[in-house]
Amino acid sequence: MAVAYQYKVEGINCINCANGIKSHLNKKQITKVNVDISKGIVTIYNDQYTANDIEQFINDLGYKTTFFRDEVKQSYKLERYLIFCTLLNLPLLGHMFVGEDHILQNPWLQICLSTPVLLIGYQYFAIGALNSIRNLKPNMNVLILMGATAAYIYSITGWIFNYNSLQVHHYLFFETTATIITLVLLGNYFEKRSITQTTTALDSLKQLQPKEAIKEVDGNLIKYPISELKIGDILIVNQGDSVPIDAEIIWGECSVDESMISGESTPVFRSNHQKVIGGTLIIDGNIRCRVTTDIANTILSQIIELVRNAQEDKPKIQQLGDKISNYFVPAVLGIAIVTFLINYFSFHIDFQNSMLRAIAVLVISCPCAMGLATPTAVMVGVGRAAKNGILIKGGSTIELFSKTKKIIFDKTGTLTNGEFKIHELKKWNENYPVESIIYELEKHSSHPIAKSLVKHLDANKTNIKFDSVNELKGKGFHATDTEGNSYQFGSAQFIQITDPLIEKDFQLFLKINNELVAALSISDEIKKGAKDLTNYFNRKNIETILLSGDNKQKCNVLASELNINEVIANQLPEDKIEKIKQFSKKNTTTMFGDGINDAPALTKSHVGISYSKASEVAVKSASIVLLNHNLEMVQKAYQICTHTYLTIKQNLFWAFAYNIIAIPLASMGYLNPIFAALTMAFSDIVVIGNSIRLKYKNIDS
Fold first, then answer.
1. 410 tagged catalytic
2. What is the pTM (predicted TM-score) of this model?
């Protein structure tokens, strides 16, 4: 199992720095890397290298890396740099508003004010710039430093060649150097704060985890750190406390607010032998409970892990931005050189203005906006979904679900409650304890029908001993007892029922020694909200399909009531897989199911949706997991995915449109380097701000 290592890395100041680290580690076969730009934290999951090895890999890029286990203190280096540079930059800007004989026009003063700012720029941006060049993927830091350095060198040169001349101030652009650095630092500051807003959902989930628990040791109550708890420890949780860790109640009863985990606002009653989830709140009652898992494997930890991984997963649409970003900076460098040459030699514009136009091109271009367009939107979208009890396992899922053309529903436990009642039990041979046999067979299955029958037939259980019980998922059971009798229990297709009248009236059949002994007719209720859900997708022109192992008659009745477009009945698990494959070849397809027999179909569809309380294999196979069993959450998931994908497209449009318009304007002299730096500094904020808007946007329309 991969081990998680966390590092505090100094020098990460933009999305391109993060991508550079990921690219470098990918070459070392370390593919699972999460980078929190706002905090400078890199989390790496790996089972190949030690913590020291990974630390050295990152340090090889020129960063200062510290391995840690506890919370990292907030670094305010950027804020200190910004304040210092601003104080030095204001007098430099002031020289533009005073006479030629004013002290602010003094070249010595200007160089003394601008040099520290340029050095801070090198200190802050140089690591990222050098690393990007080393990886053959030059980033925005390269452009910033080239633009600032060009203005600084030109000013020094102009000062030397025009020393003591009255015209010397016409050649001094030290304020351009300082302003470029200061404005980019200002943009990074707002970017850092804005990115923090996009990750609040993940931080909120982390804050649900209490730091301490009250542990019972030899009759004494002791406060224990959560990290030191072990499976089997006994804890006391009182009214008003948060449950410290996943546990099983061994005494007492309580009402639990699970809204922070599932999105369900109604408190849930829990009593003896039932489980409580770490991070949930006891609003009434007191309990004594036994720890059932370690801190790394709690439900809350798994949710946090899913959300973090989903925020790192890239939709397919981002691949275009990534490809362009790889060639963006070299292209801008080329455009800047061409800008200078054309302006100076073709249009005969003086050297100074030609150079300023080239600097403006370098400074105004913004590859960061393209890099931030997708991850910021995905962070907010996945976070909003998590707050509603919806776990989306990747950015690619967001894109695929928003593009879905067909949504395929399983029947039992998905559109129906899965609480079956025996409508009729017909026996052809009264010599067998049919109810007891069915009970003993079905207790080996986790299928909703099996669970309902076991519950219904509980009073009829006996001590029938089977030598072997084999369940064929989605079909039925083969079993033999200690006396050599053979048993078959399952669907008409599995039992090979040939009488259409019997098959029409009953769904489950029991054979003993190849003799048809009994048949069951079972009924199930439609879930609340099922019709609203299918009607919603119908209004969106998404084809609704019922794909079930149940018989045709029952499926048609359900489909008619729910306005489902197409019915495919009597399907075995392998049949479902083939149907999903056929649909997926033509259209983007979503499958919604909850049984073990649905798991293969969930993996074959573009998007698989399941409940968290469904079979474990179904949850693992699904790309969207609903913690709340309310069908409205499927519609909510679709709305979140649709609006998140729309936000991504808006962000990418802005990023591309900004550069397409801004670079030509700068090359033609309509934007000077200072205004170009200001524009570039805030172009990222537009992208991030649009993503943050997704947190509060009305998505129900």
1. yes
2. 0.74
